[in-house]
């Protein structure tokens, strides 16, 4: 457990000490929140769906956690280039512990980012159905962070150059976000879109956040939690296997 804690603490300290990263990483979610939340608000309201800010704020929180957790895998590429990864791999600890420590570190950073964005949403005018709903929403934030931090670690274990990682992330992350229902309702979609949204893990995270915060569900809490927990276990297992095969 000591190795897991040290690697977790390293990721957390690296994030806290980089003030530029903290500020810049909040820029894109704030842009979505302001440009779409207020720009499309009148259109959404005229269609009889209420406040668009209320609808999309949970999606923006989910997007923030997704981006932060998946891109935590980039840190592995830096560690590979500067030799730190080799030092950790030859240490007298199992690779599973190393992978779990890095994954939990990336997930914790993503949780902090999501919490900051939720605070910004509250300042911008978003209001949950009840303030006691926030702890329930936090559970979905944690699950989203673990799922995609493990996925980022798994992908980072198989790619050796920064350019390749960025291409894969852009090809993977943006579809995950846009197909999750973060920006539009999932009801009455074409059959192909319905299928794509249902195989997107983030869909269940966004639905859980939205349901917990404003009591608007597309599925239900039990299904959302079950899918996220299952995907977390699957991606952690996949990440552990790929990390055990890594070569430096």
TrEMBL record:
- Location(s), subcellular: Cell membrane; Membrane
> Which Pfam family, just one, is annotated for this protein?
ABC2_membrane
Q: Keywords assigned by UniProt?
A: Cell membrane, Membrane, Transmembrane, Transmembrane helix, Transport
Membrane disposition? Multi-pass membrane protein
Cellular component, GO annotation: ATP-binding cassette (ABC) transporter complex
Tell me where in this chain the ABC transmembrane type-2 domain is found: 20-246
Positions of transmembrane segments = 20-40, 52-78, 99-126, 132-155, 167-187, 225-243
Task: Enumerate the PROSITE patterns for this protein.
Answer: ABC_TM2
- Which Gene Ontology molecular-function terms are recorded? ABC-type transporter activity
Q: Which PANTHER family match?
A: NODULATION PROTEIN J (PTHR43229:SF2)
- Which family is this protein grouped under? Belongs to the ABC-2 integral membrane protein family.
Q: In its UniProt entry, what is this protein called?
A: Transport permease protein
Q: State the species of origin.
A: Acidisarcina polymorpha
């Amino acid at each position: 457990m000591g190795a897991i804690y040290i690697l977790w603490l390293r990721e957390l300290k690296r994030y806290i000490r980089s003030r530029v990263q903290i500020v810049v990483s909040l820029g894109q979610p704030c842009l979505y929140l302001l440009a779409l939340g207020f720009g499309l608000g009148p259109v959404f309201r005229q269609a009889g769906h209420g406040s668009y800010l209320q609808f999309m704020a949970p999606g923006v929180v989910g997007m923030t956690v997704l981006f932060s957790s998946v891109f935590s895998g980039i840190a592995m590429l830096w560690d590979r280039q500067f030799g730190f990864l080799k030092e950790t791999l030859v240490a007298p600890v199992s690779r599973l512990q190393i992978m779990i420590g890095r994954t939990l570190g990336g997930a914790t950073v993503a949780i902090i980012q999501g919490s900051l964005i939720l605070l910004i949403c509250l300042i911008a005018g978003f209001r949950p159905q009840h303030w006691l709903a926030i702890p329930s929403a936090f559970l979905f934030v944690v699950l989203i962070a673990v799922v995609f931090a493990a996925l980022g670690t798994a992908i980072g274990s198989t790619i050796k150059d920064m350019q390749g990682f960025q291409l894969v992330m852009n090809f993977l992350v943006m579809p995950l976000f846009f197909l999750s229902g973060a920006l539009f309702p999932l009801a009455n979609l074409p059959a192909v879109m319905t299928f794509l949204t249902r195989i997107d893990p983030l869909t269940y995270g966004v639905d859980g956040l939205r349901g917990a915060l404003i009591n608007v569900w597309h599925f239900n809490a039990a299904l959302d939690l079950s899918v996220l927990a299952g995907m977390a276990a699957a991606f952690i297992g996949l990440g552990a296997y790929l990390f055990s095969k890594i070569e430096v």
